[in-house]
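Query structure, 96 tokens:
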């Protein structure tokens, strides 16, 4: 079982908003890895490689973009985020 944890703590309840538009088809998917250089234990970079193959085989994704945040606790800079502008979806992750 996967448990997602928000490092900001428990959010304040808020009214439901409008969901972002969903593409009819995924053509280009981005992976943003929060932990470059991990040498032991789980690695989201290696997991993203597996997802890349799965997305291509099962969902028809034709292109992927992978980037690495240099510091886990800091926001990704604009130059890195710009690489994902043309993506149908982006998967951001950290493996623990």
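Result returned for the query:
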């Amino acid at each position: 079982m996967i448990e997602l944890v928000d490092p900001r703590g428990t959010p304040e309840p808020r009214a439901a908003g409008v969901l972002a538009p969903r593409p009819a088809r995924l053509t280009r998917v981005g992976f943003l890895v929060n932990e470059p250089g991990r040498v032991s234990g789980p690695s989201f970079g290696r997991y993203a490689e597996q997802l890349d193959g799965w997305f291509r085989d099962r969902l028809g994704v034709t292109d992927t973009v992978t980037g690495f945040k240099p510091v886990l606790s800091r926001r990704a800079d604009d130059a890195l985020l710009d690489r994902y502008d043309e993506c149908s979806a982006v998967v951001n992750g950290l493996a623990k």
